[in-house]
Amino acid sequence: MDMDRYPTKLRVLAVDDDRSGLRLLKQQLDLCNYNNVTTVTDAATAWDMLRERKGRDDQFDMVISDIFMVDGGIDGFKLLEHVSLEMDIPVISHQ
């Protein structure tokens, strides 16, 4: 695998209420040398982290999120809505 193809310095926020799926996603990102991955298990925590870091040097560059989450007060769809309206970062969603 040609690791030069991947932008490994990206700060990635991975969100999934399925801890096993989140662990697997982190492992896959690690294999591609994405070494700056933060994982959280609920959308509300993810949204708080995104807002807290917005405009800072350590803001996230990308979000990968499950869409079918309900723990923590907001679901994955609402998280994606907030990010698309208030942030200028790419989002990858999965179910």
UniProtKB/TrEMBL annotation:
Keyword Lipid metabolism: no
Keywords recorded for this protein, A-Z: Phosphoprotein, Two-component regulatory system
Location of the Response regulatory domain: 11-95
SUPFAM superfamilies, alphabetized: CheY-like
InterPro entries tied to this protein: ARR-like, CheY-like_superfamily, Sig_transdc_resp-reg_receiver
Modified residues (4-aspartylphosphate): D66
GO biological process: one example: cytokinin-activated signaling pathway
Name by which UniProt lists this protein: Response regulatory domain-containing protein
